[in-house]
Design brief:
It is a single chain. By secondary structure, the chain is an alpha+beta fold. The chain has 17 helices and seven strands. The protein has three domains: 104 residues, 2-Layer Sandwich (Double Stranded RNA Binding Domain); 112 residues; 180 residues, hpI Integrase, Chain A (Orthogonal Bundle). Helix 5 packs across helix 8. The longest helix has 28 residues.
Length: 438
C-alpha cells in the first residue's frame, strides 16, 4: 500500500519529468483494486478497477486527490470508498458503474418526489395563505397591511412546523399553540390582533370559492371552514382605552413636537391640529391629496371592509397649511408628504415611538386621538360633527348612498375653535368654548 509521502513524491516526479504515472494502492483478489493515475501535469485521480459481468475491465472514477480533503479525496478517504465498492462487488454486483447510476437515479427521483411533496405542502400551507393575504392587503393599499404583516411575523412565523402545514388541515387545537406561547410571554393586547389576522385570512380564503372578486389563488387552499372561529376573541384583554392626556401633558406634547423640525413631528402636529385624525390615513397623503387653491386635504378612509376607501375632506387652516406647504416643498413627488426619506410612507410605529419618547411611556398615540375627541366634546362640538371631522361611524346606508355633503363649513368652524383652543393651551390659557356644531 502507498504512503502519503510516496504518493506526493510520485506527483512531483510526474510533473518534473512530464510523464504520466500509474500506481496501485490496494488490490484484493475478487474485490477489484484502488488505482491512482497521475497526469504529466501532476494531477492525480483515483479509480476503482474491476472486471464487469461481461469480462471487461472498467476503471470507475472516484475523484481527484487532495491531501487536505477539501477539493478532493485524501488517500484514506479513497481507501474507504474503495472498501465500499469492494463490498458491493463482493455481494455479486459486478457492473458497479451501472449499479451506481441506477442508485443515483433512484435517489434523484426520491429527492424530486420529496421536493414536490414539500412544494405541494407549502403551496397550500398556512404560511403561504398568510403571505398571500398580506400581499393582497398591500396590493389594495390597505392601511392595515403593515400591521398584519408585523403581527404574523412576530407571533406566527416562528412556529415553522405549523406554518408549513397545509392550511386546510389545521384545526383550532393547532392554532391554540400560537396563543399559548403569547400568553406565556405575557402578551395580552397582541392576542386579539393575531386572532383577527388569522381569522380574516381564513375567512377570505373560504369566501374565495364563491366570490369572484377575490383572487383565484385563494381557492387553491381549499378552505371550507374557519378554524379560528372557535377560539376566544380575547376581547376581555383588549378593553377600550380610557386614558386621556391632562392639559399639562397635551401642552408639553405640543411644545416638544413644535421644537422638532422633522417630518414625523409635523405629521403628529397635523394629526392633532386636525382634531385627532387617524395616523394611518394621514401619513398616506400625497401631493394629489392636497388642494392649496381651495385649502383642502383629502384623506382616504379604507378602514374596515370597504371595497373602495371613503373620501374624507378636511379644511387646511393655519398653522396646518404652513406645515403641509413645508412638507410639499420637499416631498412633492414622494409617496407621502410626510416621508422622511422621500421614498417611503412613514410607518405609524415611527410616530408611536416619538410619542413614547416624549411621554416617557406614560401615554400612547391612541390616547392622543381619544384626548382630541374628548376635548372637542368638551368644547361643545356635537357628536355628529365630531364623527364627520374624525371620519368614524359613517358606514350607514344613508351616509353611504345619499349623504355626499362634506360638511366643510361646519368642519372649518369647529377646527378653527379647536386650533384656537390648542394655541391658547400652548400660551398657558384655557379657552372655554361651547356649542360648536350643536
Amino acid at each position: 500500500m502507498l504512503t502519503v509521502r510516496e504518493l506526493d513524491g510520485a506527483i512531483k516526479k510526474a510533473a518534473k519529468t512530464e510523464t504520466a504515472i500509474k500506481l496501485t494502492d490496494t488490490d484484493r483478489r475478487g474485490q477489484g483494486s484502488l488505482q491512482l493515475r497521475i497526469s504529466a501535469a501532476g494531477k492525480a485521480n483515483f479509480y476503482y478497477r474491476h472486471i464487469t459481468s461481461d469480462g471487461k475491465r472498467d476503471d470507475f472514477p472516484l475523484g481527484g486527490y487532495d491531501p487536505a480533503g477539501t477539493k478532493g479525496l485524501t488517500l484514506e478517504r479513497a481507501r474507504d470508498r474503495y472498501g465500499e465498492l469492494a463490498t458491493i462487488y463482493r455481494s455479486g454486483v459486478k457492473d458497479i458503474r451501472a449499479h451506481l447510476q441506477a442508485q443515483g437515479k433512484i435517489a434523484a427521483e426520491a429527492l424530486r418526489g420529496q421536493q414536490e411533496a414539500q412544494a405541494h405542502r407549502e403551496a397550500g400551507s398556512l404560511g403561504a395563505l398568510l403571505t398571500a393575504y398580506v400581499e393582497y392587503l398591500q396590493a389594495k393599499g390597505k392601511p392595515s397591511a403593515k400591521d398584519v404583516e408585523n403581527t404574523i411575523k412576530n407571533h406566527v412565523t416562528q412556529l415553522s412546523e405549523l406554518v408549513a402545514t397545509r392550511a386546510n388541515e389545521i384545526g383550532p387545537t393547532d392554532l391554540r399553540l400560537i396563543f399559548d406561547r403569547m400568553q406565556d410571554r405575557g402578551l395580552t393586547r397582541s392576542l386579539g390582533k393575531t386572532r383577527a389576522a388569522l381569522h380574516s385570512a381564513y375567512n377570505f380564503a373560504a369566501r374565495s370559492e364563491f366570490d369572484s372578486t377575490i383572487p383565484v389563488i385563494f381557492r387553491a387552499f381549499k378552505i371550507s371552514t374557519n378554524p379560528v372561529t372557535p377560539l376566544p376573541t380575547f376581547a376581555h384583554l383588549s378593553k377600550p382605552g380610557e386614558r386621556t392626556l391632562s392639559h399639562a401633558e397635551l401642552r408639553q406634547l405640543l411644545q416638544e413636537l413644535a421644537s422638532r423640525d422633522t417630518m414625523i413631528a409635523k405629521a403628529l402636529l397635523t394629526m392633532i391640529y386636525l382634531g385627532g385624525q387617524r395616523p394611518t390615513q394621514l401619513v398616506r397623503a400625497t401631493l394629489q391629496d392636497v388642494d392649496l387653491d381651495r385649502g383642502l386635504l383629502m384623506l382616504h378612509d379604507g378602514k374596515g371592509k370597504r371595497t373602495h376607501p371613503r373620501l374624507h375632506v378636511l379644511p387646511l387652516l393655519a398653522p396646518v397649511r404652513g406645515w403641509i406647504e413645508d412638507c410639499l416643498s420637499i416631498n412633492s413627488s414622494a409617496p407621502s408628504i410626510f416621508s422622511s426619506d422621500g421614498m417611503t410612507i412613514p410607518y405609524t410605529g415611527t410616530l408611536s415611538k416619538l410619542v413614547h419618547t416624549i411621554s416617557g411611556g406614560s401615554y400612547r398615540m391612541g390616547d392622543i386621538r381619544r384626548t382630541c375627541e374628548t376635548e372637542l366634546a368638551g368644547l361643545g362640538v356635537s357628536k355628529d360633527l365630531r364623527a364627520q371631522i374624525l371620519s368614524h361611524g359613517l358606514g350607514g346606508i344613508q351616509a353611504k348612498h345619499y349623504d355626499r355633503h362634506q360638511y366643510l363649513e361646519e368642519k372649518t368652524e369647529a377646527l378653527n375653535h379647536w386650533i384656537a383652543y390648542l394655541e391658547g393651551l400652548m400660551a398657558g390659557n384655557i379657552i372655554p368654548l361651547r356649542g360648536v356644531g350643536a
